[in-house]
Write a structure and sequence with these properties.
This protein is an alpha/beta fold. It has helices at residues 13-23, 27-35, 41-48, 64-76, 89-104, 125-133, 149-158, 197-211, 216-233, 240-254, 259-267, 277-294, 298-305, 309-342, 364-375, 403-408, 433-447, 470-477; strands spanning 5-7, 80-84, 108-112, 136-142, 161-165, 179-181, 352-357, 379-385, 390-396, 416-419, 423-429, 456-458, 461-462, 491-504, 510-516, 522-527, 542-554, 557-569.
């Protein structure tokens, strides 16, 4: 029996019916649109037919004017410019975008991606010193810098200007930089605050090329592949401007002329195929991230800026090897975490804080995400460094708990913290871990209710399996791309009869079914990971199903099937 709570949103039936009639779509799809916040016919047209015209004016971002003016002066004076990024996909793609743009503009540009283990996150004072020694007079950050007050102040004393492009939450004070271009600034009036770091970099570059008299629309189209890569990999909500970036960026990525992207698509078997957010989130993104986690993210950056095909193939081979190492290390750490938690009484624990020597600091963030999924609590995993007496790690959270805000309440125990509502990075002294764990749980106990830790599924509509047709499938596809903020539609069908059931997969861990709705037309189902339920869903049994609608091709036959997310049986 499922332990997941299923629920359906309340609907304004009159609004749903009006959208269905005015748009000429099914009531089911109109219901999905309403669930996504669509209330008017014009909003529905904008949602179903995204356009590059929907992107906002970059000059509306805070400090954009000051940032552009400083870059123009630097270009005219042939100043040496350093682009300083971050070691995840968003940071690497942001840096690659700016490096490519500045190179096209004839700038004297160099780049730097910090090494996760040696440098840690964000720009450091010694980086400013090294840049000054190398003749750099302007540093532009990509996906970092908004909390680097000390470094930016130090750079100023050296005569090095800094422009910050970032999307992370600012601290209590902003750095004294030439410009801080960040839609999350408290004084920002930009219409959309959820841009990824690469989205901010894209807007900055767009404003620069516009100021220089170039066609900025054509520019945006040229770099949408990189923008989609970082936006989707950083799990940003695919609504508003991000929806435009994702839709057209995925198309641009599939036919990209950048040699590194071409090599990556060939190696992963995606060359010539239709790309989706899944292609980035589960295939391309993890390979780029693996380099920064286990080695030097500068390798991934070089892949995205190289103009040498043989070098691109060689670099992709390195990414593939490191990704396999990442998978092995990830499985080991997760097994050790589960072994620890199996011995714990978690009834009164609201936030999990786990630490161990030997856990790779570049991998703990991925494992923390899995722990949140398995235990439905915020989780912080820390890698202990016995030599320095410090712990470095990552935090992931549930919807009900803003982990970044909670960590800020524990700042007196932390050396560093940065991130978002659902994900953050931390470092602290090993001696402070027990006190930190107690304080974090104290904060969490005031916010997280028992029901917040129960896994939930919010479906879009209750329908009969007979309604699952190619017509509905094609209507749903109009709502792509799916991701955070616009999840793939979920449906519930109750009291349907099983007409076929068997375990499939090498180890029988999956379930293949056919079910019958009210009209008696059998519908195919696939339920990955539900093989053990086979005795409870034998032929003739009634079940409730929660599912996505997918197309399936097998032996030259194309069918619409139910991709099962959860099952409730008669038991």
């Amino acid at each position: 029996m499922s332990k997941v709570v299923w629920s359906l949103p309340e609907h304004d039936d009159a609004l749903v019916n009006n959208l269905a009639e005015e748009l000429g779509i099914s009531e089911t799809v109109a219901r999905i649109l309403v669930n996504r916040g669509v209330r008017t016919v014009s909003d529905a047209h904008a949602f179903m037919s995204p356009s590059l015209d929907q992107m906002h004016d970059p000059m509306l971002l805070p400090d954009m004017e000051a940032g552009v003016e400083r870059v123009v002066r630097a270009l005219e004076a042939k100043e040496k410019i350093l682009i300083h990024g971050d070691y995840d996909v968003d940071g690497v793609s942001s840096t690659a975008l700016l490096v490519r743009v500045f190179t096209k503009l004839g700038a004297n540009v160099v780049h730097r991606i910090p090494h996760r283990k040696r440098d840690g996150y964000d720009i450091k004072p010694y980086t400013a010193e090294e840049a000054k020694a190398e003749g750099v007079s302007l540093i532009i950050t990509a996906d970092c810098g908004v909390t680097a007050c000390e470094t930016i102040e130090h750079a100023q004393t050296l005569g090095v200007d800094i422009i910050v492009t970032d999307h992370h939450e600012p601290g209590h004070e902003l750095p004294k930089a030439i410009a801080i271009i960040n839609p999350h600034r408290h004084d920002s009036t930009y219409p959309f605050s959820e841009l990824a770091g690469v989205g901010v970099a894209l807007k900055f570059a767009q404003a620069i090329v516009r100021r220089l008299g170039y066609d900025d629309q054509r520019f945006v189209e040229r770099y949408l592949d990189l923008a989609a890569l970082g936006t989707i990999a950083d799990v940003m909500p695919l609504v508003d401007e991000n929806r435009v970036i994702a839709k057209f960026g995925l198309e641009a990525l599939a036919k990209s002329k950048k040699l590194g992207i071409q090599a990556l698509l060939r190696k992963t078997g995606l060359d010539g195929k239709r790309l989706t957010p899944h292609s980035i989130g589960f295939v391309l993104g993890p390979r780029i991230n693996a380099v920064g986690r286990l080695d030097d993210a500068a390798i991934a950056l070089q892949l995205l800026v190289t103009g040498d095909e043989s070098e691109a193939d060689e670099l992709v081979g390195t990414l593939e090897r490191l990704n396999q190492e990442r998978q092995t290390e990830q499985a080991r750490i997760l097994a050790e975490v589960q072994e620890i938690l199996e011995q714990e009484d978690l009834d009164d624990t609201r936030a999990l804080v786990l630490s161990k020597t030997g856990w790779h600091s570049g991998i703990v963030g991925i494992v923390a995400s899995k722990v949140v999924e398995l235990y439905n609590r915020p989780a912080i995993l820390l890698s202990l460094d016995e030599e320095t007496g410090t712990a470095h790690g990552s935090a992931r959270s549930i919807e009900a708990f803003n982990i970044f805000a909670a960590l800020n309440q524990c700042r007196d125990l932390l050396d560093r913290v940065g991130g978002h509502e659902l994900a953050a990075g931390v470092s602290l002294k090993v001696d402070n871990i027990d006190q930190f764990q107690a304080k974090l749980n104290e904060v969490a106990s005031e916010i997280i209710k028992p029901e917040d830790m129960i896994p939930r599924i919010m479906a879009d509509a209750q329908i009969d399996p007979d309604a699952v047709t190619w017509k509905l499938m094609n209507e749903i596809r109009i709502l792509e791309p799916f991701g955070p903020g616009n999840p793939e539609p979920l449906f519930i069908s109750s009291d349907v009869e099983t007409v076929e059931s068997r375990r499939v997969g090498g180890d029988g861990s999956h379930l293949k079914m056919r079910v019958r709705g009210t009209k008696g037309l059998p519908v195919d189902c696939i339920a990955f990971g539900f093989g053990e339920l086979e005795p409870a869903v034998q032929v003739g049994r009634k079940v409730d199903l929660c599912y996505n609608i997918r197309s399936n091709s097998y032996n030259g036959r194309n069918t619409v099937q139910l991709a099962i997310k959860d099952i409730r049986t008669e038991e």
